[in-house]
Design goal:
The chain is an alpha/beta fold and about 290 residues long. The protein has one domain (about 5-285): Rossmann fold. About 35% of the residues lie in helices and about 15% in strands. The chain contains eight helices and ten strands. It has helices at about 20-30, 50-55, 75-85, 100-105, 155-170, 175-195, 240-245, 265-285; strands at about 5-10, 35-40, 90, 115-120, 125-130, 150, 200-210, 225-235, 250-255, 260. It has an eight-stranded mixed beta sheet with strand order 2-5-1-6-7-8-10-9, sandwiched between helices. Helix 1 (about 20-30) crosses helix 8 (about 265-285) and helix 5 crosses helix 6 (about 175-195). The longest helix is centred in the middle third of the chain and has 19 residues, at about 175-195. The chain is globular, with a radius of gyration of 19 Å.
């Protein structure tokens, strides 16, 4: 990690809420007048959408799936974090989503990548959100470069429900195809995604208060007011629990390192918890 060029990473699987968390951080950066270099994990996938589909049709699945380290340019992600921590720069690219109107308007096809290029100059910090921001494996140690690592992870049944609904309603996949994807990803989810949540500084885990025992028949995603959020701190001694309990109505401490809040209070909690951490991180950043 580097206090001179700080790195904040939000890690979690697709559909877990990392993008929503990214928006919360963007609001914090804007109000604190911080210029962040924003990078997403899907831009480090090894294969574009067409390549993955073509490999899947042959039964090869492109190094299995995007959860797997082998299906991603982990070497380039590590290089970016290393370079940014030492120089404040590094190479990145964009993955073109279906709703990326600006990139599509310039001729890029959804499901493809833009060319690699240097990050914008003179940024205050690097912000990453994606699948592998906290990876530690036999070959890689991405977490060592991250100054503030955040995990966003619903309980697995809720994660599956969210994925099934998103991919069937908004991406045009059949429910059978989505369930097959979930099953094919399970080994890599357990091996490459889950261990990251032991390395995070803060975890946000959403838990539904309705029956999700069979996620493959649930038709509606539990709402925020049908959920709780469990927040676990790696260093609870630095957390002002009495302040958070006063500020977040109906919250409680369930363990010495764990705060439980209503699902409707997640945005407020993220601001109350993460803003001081970001401010402290920048306050300890040495002058160049």
């Amino acid at each position: 990690m580097s206090r001179r060029h700080p790195i904040i990473a939000v890690t979690g699987s697709s559909g877990a809420g990392t993008t929503t968390t990214g928006r919360s951080f963007s609001q914090i950066f804007a109000s604190e007048d911080l210029r962040a270099a924003m990078v997403t994990g899907d831009s480090f996938h090894r294969y574009n959408r067409e390549q993955m589909s073509r490999l899947a049709a042959k039964g090869q699945f492109g190094e299995r799936n995007h959860f797997a380290l082998a299906a991603n340019h982990i070497d380039k992600l590590e290089a970016l974090f290393y370079d940014y921590g030492h120089t404040g720069s590094g190479q990145f690219r964009h993955y073109v989503h279906d709703d990326d109107r600006a990139l599509i308007a310039t001729g890029y096809k959804p499901g493809t990548f833009t060319p690699w290029k240097a990050l914008p100059a003179d940024t205050d910090l690097l912000f990453y959100e994606g699948l592998h921001g906290g990876v530690i494996s036999d070959s890689w140690d991405i977490a060592q470069y991250v100054d503030l690592l955040i995990g966003v992870v619903p309980i697995v049944n809720l994660e599956w429900i969210q994925k099934i609904r998103r991919d069937t309603h908004y991406r045009g996949y059949s429910e059978e195809a989505v369930v097959k994807t979930i099953i094919n990803r399970m080994d890599d989810y357990v091996r490459d995604i889950v261990p990251q949540f032991s390395h995070t500084h803060v975890n946000f885990q959403r838990i539904p208060l309705v029956d999700t025992s069979n996620p493959f028949v649930v038709r509606e995603v539990p709402t925020e007011d049908e959920s709780l959020v469990v927040i676990r701190f790696r260093e609870p001694s630095s957390v002002d629990f009495p302040y958070l309990l006063r500020m977040i109505h109906d919250s409680k401490v369930s363990r010495h390192d764990t705060l439980v809040i209503p699902g409707t209070k997640l945005s407020l909690a993220m601001d109350l918890i993460m803003r001081p951490m970001v401010v402290d991180l920048m306050a300890h950043k040495p002058f160049a």
